């Protein structure tokens, strides 16, 4: 069972090394899931003396005002024999056998984090003490609660300390060691007050009563120690610490413990409670309780660790692997990311992902609607027909049919189709650009490398521009071909009876009357509608062939060719990753290592009895 406390000690040290010490964090925190004992008390409550009595050594800074300004994670390790020593996590492999030096290092390390302005910090100091005279136990010594800021400290420090203490002890896995002096009214105890706020039923609180020997003559603390004055789930424990005179005289801690036992055994009011009083008993009770709590939490801890490992691995996969060092590895990474983008782009066009259907809507709705809006019948008004026919005849009127007039009328109508044709090309181009942007957003790796994203996006758009120009040429060529060569068969099939204007014996005057011109307009409109019907099918084919198909086939060909020519430094500049992502990957990797190590360690000792 002792291995369980050592396991928690190990995980707590690793958490602190990663900056995970129970504060708000975007990363999962293991610290909050670990059972711990937090020591809470007001200034001058005897909190430091209780800790030193449990350890059996003078090692905590002393003085006026707020002395403890950072949490101290005190990890006690019982050894069979040998000299007592302390070790700080921030000074690995350095053993402190002089506990006065331990006291000075706690003060110095506090100043390194908080400065000499006497501020506070929630970043803990880790101190491990190895001794034959301790029990395996971990305690978190928190700054003493106070009501007044001392000189040189901000007025907010009173509330800041209370907030820090509350943040530690409100967590359900925290066991509260509430230190209260017996020579003050328990109703005014800072420790009891804040403990009651976060643990109103007293299910996680151990009460420790100090300074029993300093109570006014004729008074005692029996009602409190027997749980009558203030009841907790666990029995109150009374301790008698060394007096300030004893501390000044460097009274041995072993002698102080012996004197403590003698006090309870020789005082009539407390004689019946002697077996469960004193700092030695307190240490044993806390050690046993901590072991029990740790063992009960192991199944939940294992579940949390397994889930978090999955979450961390998923997040690491999402943000991608670190960049390769060699040129070949960088080139491969660039090409792989670009291929992923290209495949997502194709998926949109092929209907695997949404977006490609908008191109069909252009051909099925927008382009035909644009052709209808041309309104050729209005263009072929009698005045327009008369004007073009007359101009085409020149000085000599046509003899049989106004062929030149027909051509001019047809050409004047067909040239207007160029507008909708170009608009179809541009609209499809816009859709393809949107799909490129959408595909880049969906390519997770591109979020990791913003420079590569910009370069890739520019190269893809440049390719689309080239394809648009080729598509316009091909599409407008289809329109121009219809103007350049008319379908003769259409006109041969026209009726030639006099009623239809085909009789050559009519006078020149008759050939320019309204009925005659109206029949010409009708014929031209029929022909233009026939051509539009054909172009409605051929223009989409041209656009798809020149833009959509080509984009699927060779969108990044030019970009790939340019990448192959780049040197290592140029590729590295493309893979200039966002520093925030690099830092997050490092943090996640370390956190994952911590959780995997914790998982292995817990499995090794979880059921060790």
UniProtKB/TrEMBL annotation:
Its main location: cytoplasm. It holds the Pfam family Dynamin_N. SMART domains: DYNc, GED. One of its GO terms (molecular function) is GTPase activity. Keywords: Cell cycle, Cell division, Cytoplasm, Cytoskeleton, GTP-binding, Hydrolase, Microtubule, Motor protein, Nucleotide-binding. It comes from the Eukaryota. Residues 517-609 form the GED domain. GO terms for biological process: cell division. The keyword Cytoplasm applies. It is found in: Cytoplasm, Cytoskeleton, Phragmoplast. Residues 31-299 form the Dynamin-type G domain. One of its GO terms (cellular component) is microtubule. PROSITE patterns: G_DYNAMIN_1, G_DYNAMIN_2, GED. Belongs to the TRAFAC class dynamin-like GTPase superfamily. Dynamin/Fzo/YdjA family. This is Putative dynamin central domain, dynamin, GTPase domain, GTPase effector domain, Dynamin superfamily.
């Amino acid at each position: 069972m002792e291995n369980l406390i050592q396991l928690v000690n190990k995980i707590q040290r690793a958490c602190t090394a990663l900056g995970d010490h129970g504060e708000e964090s975007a990363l999962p925190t293991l610290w909050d899931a670990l059972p711990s004992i937090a020591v809470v008390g007001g200034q001058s409550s005897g909190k430091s003396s209780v800790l030193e009595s449990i350890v059996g050594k003078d090692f905590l800074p002393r003085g006026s005002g707020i002395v403890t300004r950072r949490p101290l994670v005190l990890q006690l390790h019982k050894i069979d024999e040998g000299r007592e020593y302390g070790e700080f996590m921030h000074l690995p492999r350095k053993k402190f056998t002089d506990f006065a030096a331990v006291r000075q290092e706690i003060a110095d390390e506090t100043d390194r984090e908080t400065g000499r302005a006497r501020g506070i910090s929630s970043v803990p100091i880790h101190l491990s003490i190895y001794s034959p005279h301790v029990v395996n136990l971990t305690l978190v010594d928190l700054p003493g609660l106070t009501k007044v800021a001392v000189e040189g400290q901000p007025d907010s420090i009173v509330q800041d300390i209370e907030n820090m203490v509350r943040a530690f002890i409100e967590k359900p896995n925290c066991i509260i060691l509430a230190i209260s002096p017996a020579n003050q009214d328990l109703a005014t105890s800072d420790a009891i007050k804040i403990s009651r706020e976060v643990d109103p039923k007293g299910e996680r609180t151990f009460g420790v009563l100090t300074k029993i020997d300093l109570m006014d003559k004729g008074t005692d603390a029996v009602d409190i120690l027997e749980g009558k004055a203030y009841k907790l789930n666990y029995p109150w424990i009374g301790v008698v610490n060394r007096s300030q005179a004893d501390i000044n005289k460097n009274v041995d801690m072993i002698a102080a413990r012996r004197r403590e036992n003698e006090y309870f055994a020789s005082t009539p009011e407390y004689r019946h409670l002697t077996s469960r009083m004193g700092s030695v008993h307190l240490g044993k009770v806390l050690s046993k309780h901590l072991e029990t709590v740790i063992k009960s939490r192991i199944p939940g801890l294992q579940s949390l660790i397994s889930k978090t490992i999955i979450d961390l691995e998923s997040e690491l996969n999402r943000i991608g692997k670190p960049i390769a060092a060699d040129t070949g590895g960088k080139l491969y990474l660039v090409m792989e990311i670009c291929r992923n983008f290209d495949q997502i782009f194709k998926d949109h066009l092929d209907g695997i992902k949404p977006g490609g259907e908008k191109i069909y809507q252009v051909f099925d709705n927008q382009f035909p609607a644009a052709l209808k809006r041309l309104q050729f019948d209005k263009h072929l008004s009698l005045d327009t027909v008369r004007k073009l026919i007359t101009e085409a005849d020149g000085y000599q009127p046509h003899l049989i049919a106004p062929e030149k007039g027909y051509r001019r009328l047809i050409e004047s109508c067909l040239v207007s189709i160029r507008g909708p044709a170009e608009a179809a090309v541009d609209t499809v181009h816009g859709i393809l650009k949107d799909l490129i942007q959408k595909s880049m957003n969906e390519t997770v790796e591109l979020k990791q490398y913003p420079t590569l994203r910009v370069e890739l996006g520019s190269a893809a758009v440049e390719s689309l521009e080239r394809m648009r120009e080729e598509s316009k040429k091909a599409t407008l060529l289809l329109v121009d071909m219809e103007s350049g060569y008319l379908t003769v068969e259409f006109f041969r099939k026209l009726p030639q009876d006099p009623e239809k204007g085909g009789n050559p014996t009519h006078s020149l005057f008759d050939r320019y009357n309204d009925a005659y011109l109206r029949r010409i307009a009708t014929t031209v409109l029929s022909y233009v509608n026939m051509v539009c019907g054909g172009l409605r099918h051929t223009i989409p084919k041209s656009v798809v062939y020149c833009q959509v198909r080509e984009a699927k086939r060779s969108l990044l060909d030019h970009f790939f060719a340019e990448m192959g020519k780049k040197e290592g430094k140029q590729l590295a500049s493309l893979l200039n990753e966002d520093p925030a992502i690099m830092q997050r990957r490092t943090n996640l990797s370390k956190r994952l290592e911590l959780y995997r190590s914790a998982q292995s360690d817990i499995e090794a000792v979880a059921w060790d009895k």
